[in-house]
């Protein structure tokens, strides 16, 4: 527990000193990689209202493991969707997330641990711990990861609040439009089991076909889903 306490202190120091959200994510993955025994790399996937917002990796080449590329199929996206810890001690025997696992193996990843992070009402994500050696991610790392996720979520939420509700610095009006479009993208991803990029293409195609602004199409979709069905 002393090691965990030291990790949380280091994470706190790095994140509260961050000038913006993306900087905070970069500092988070670097700190986690260096501080947790057995962890070779660390990644963070963040979604805003169901659409990809930010991704950070402790090693740039591992940015290719951004799970959004694989739709809902990958440890981080499963952790985000189920709000539960996802763990594989040895990817060589893993049968879940086959496309993602194959890519991870190419990068030398042999173990993965993904834990969900709640940042605020509109932003969720997952911290992924990657190991070069199989079997080194154990129950000890799982406990540390869960404590880390809870702590990091609070800090990242504070960074977003300090930067102004959105890390890109959009105005309140633009953000409102972006949120409803993100929500619509999330609905399509859930309905079709497709990645965010394809869901956005579907939404844009509907907008063009109907000659209706993208935001209006998104609002209609979100409203239709939220409306109670007749029994």
TrEMBL record:
Ranges where the ANTAR domain occurs: 161-222
InterPro entries: ANTAR, CheY-like_superfamily, GAF, GAF-like_dom_sf, GAF_ANTAR, WH-like_DNA-bd_sf
UniProt-listed Gene3D superfamilies: 3.30.450.40, Winged helix-like DNA-binding domain superfamily/Winged helix DNA-binding domain (1.10.10.10)
Superkingdom of origin: Bacteria
Keyword tags: Kinase, Transcription, Transcription regulation, Transferase
Presence of keyword Disulfide bond: no
GO molecular function: kinase activity; RNA binding
Any single Pfam family the record assigns to this protein: GAF_2
Name of the protein this chain belongs to: GAF domain-containing protein
Organism: Plantactinospora soyae
